[in-house]
Every structure is written in structure tokens, then in C-alpha cells.
């Protein structure tokens, strides 16, 4: 029977969360908002508009949301040619593909950013489909990105596992009805991931690959 392994990308397969933190912090600073980096870090993984709302509140000048998002995109784009994959990220996807899993990426990235992330992972032959921000109306923690990934895979929720690094990932996967696996390489504590719905938590893709026979992806 078909099985789907759905993966978040930023902080899960590619070591980009703190690059996003720096880019968002600078974009906000340039617009006159002094937001602590730890607060930005906890918001990474949300779609841009939701991230800004989470950090600045509903009483902000929403007319400047697009400006903030564009500034973040420009600042983060400086790293596109050197985004670092996390240890064994590509090997993990290739192994799952060989084992018969349908591998799908579910990410808030799109366009040139997604292309840069896929270059970093270097496992295109193992990736069957990608559900990007361009394909859904609501990002994580809504279930829609994971549900769309399952549609692309042609697999029901009970035969799928979602791997991510943030509480937003775990909540999205849980709402979509799939088993959730957390990784710590995005910088979110184990307890937070478990409380948000993670069935199992590993240090990074390399640790998950090493423990694969005893994991939800066995």
C-alpha cells in the first residue's frame, strides 16, 4: 500500500531557521520595530502575514505588512546560493524513496526560495511532489498544507507521517490527522514539539535516518 512521508523544509531539512530570524529581525528593525530575536525565532514557520501579526499584533499598520515581507525576502535572498542542508537530509529522503515511501515537501517557501532549498537538499530524484505556499490559501498551523501534500501523494492521512521542526508543523499535521515526527534542529524544545502533537522527536535528519527501523517511518 502507498505510504507518504511529508516533510517541512526550513529547519527540518535545511539549516535556515536562524537565517530567517536574522532577516526578519533586520526587516522589522528597518521599519522601526524592535522585536527580540527569541520572539522572532518562535514565530518562524508561520506564513509571512501571520508571522508579522503574531509579532506586532492586530493593531499594527497592516498596510506595511507587504513592505516587511518584501524586506525579509530581499535580506534572506542573499543566502540563496549557500543554504546548508542539515546532516543526512538528502540521504534520508533517498532512503525513504527506495523503501517505497512517496516523499512530498510541504513548505511555506515558493519560487526562487524553494528552488534554492531543493538545491541544498540535493535529492530531487527522491521527491515525488511539493506543496508550496503558492498552492494553498492558508499556511501552517492550518491543516491545508499537509492536506494538499496528501492529495498530491494520493495517500490518506492514516498512511502518512509528517516531519517538521516547529509547533506550527506539529499542529498542522495533527489537524490533518497524520502522525507527526519532530526534529530539534530548528531550535524548538522537545517538550514544545511533543505538546503540539509530535509522536516522536529526533535531533535531526541524521538521527532519524539512524533510527529509521524503530521510528514511525519504519
From TrEMBL:
It holds the Pfam family Hydrolase. The keyword Hydrolase applies. GO terms for molecular function: phosphoglycolate phosphatase activity. One of its GO terms (biological process) is DNA repair. Keywords: Hydrolase. The keyword Iron does not apply. InterPro entries: HAD-like_hydrolase_sf, HAD-like_sf, HAD-SF_hydro_IA, HAD_sf, PGP-like_dom2. GO terms for cellular component: cytosol. NCBIfam families: HAD-SF-IA-v3. This is HAD family hydrolase. It comes from Streptomyces calvus.
Amino acid at each position: 500500500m502507498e505510504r507518504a512521508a511529508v516533510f517541512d523544509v526550513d529547519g527540518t531539512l535545511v539549516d535556515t531557521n536562524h537565517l530567517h530570524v536574522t532577516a526578519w529581525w533586520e526587516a522589522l528593525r528597518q521599519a522601526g520595530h524592535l522585536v527580540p530575536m527569541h520572539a522572532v525565532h518562535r514565530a518562524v514557520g508561520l506564513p509571512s502575514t501571520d508571522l508579522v501579526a503574531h509579532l506586532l499584533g492586530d493593531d499594527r499598520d497592516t498596510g506595511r505588512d507587504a513592505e516587511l515581507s518584501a524586506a525579509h525576502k530581499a535580506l534572506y535572498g542573499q543566502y540563496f546560493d549557500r543554504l546548508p542542508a542539515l546532516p543526512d537530509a538528502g540521504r534520508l529522503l533517498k532512503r525513504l524513496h527506495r523503501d517505497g515511501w512517496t516523499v512530498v515537501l510541504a513548505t511555506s517557501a515558493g519560487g526562487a526560495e524553494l528552488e534554492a532549498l531543493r538545491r541544498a537538499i540535493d535529492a530531487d530524484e527522491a521527491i515525488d511532489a511539493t506543496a508550496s505556499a503558492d498552492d494553498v490559501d492558508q499556511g501552517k498551523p492550518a491543516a491545508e498544507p499537509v492536506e494538499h501534500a496528501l492529495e498530491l501523494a494520493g495517500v490518506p492521512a492514516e498512511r502518512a507521517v509528517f516531519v517538521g521542526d516547529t509547533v506550527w508543523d506539529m499542529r498542522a499535521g495533527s489537524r490533518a490527522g497524520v502522525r507527526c515526527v519532530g526534529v530539534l534542529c530548528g531550535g524548538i524544545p522537545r517538550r514544545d514539539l511533543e505538546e503540539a502533537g509530535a509522536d516522536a522527536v529526533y535531533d535531526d535528519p541524521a538521527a532519524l535516518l539512524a533510527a529509521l527501523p524503530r521510528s514511525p517511518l519504519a
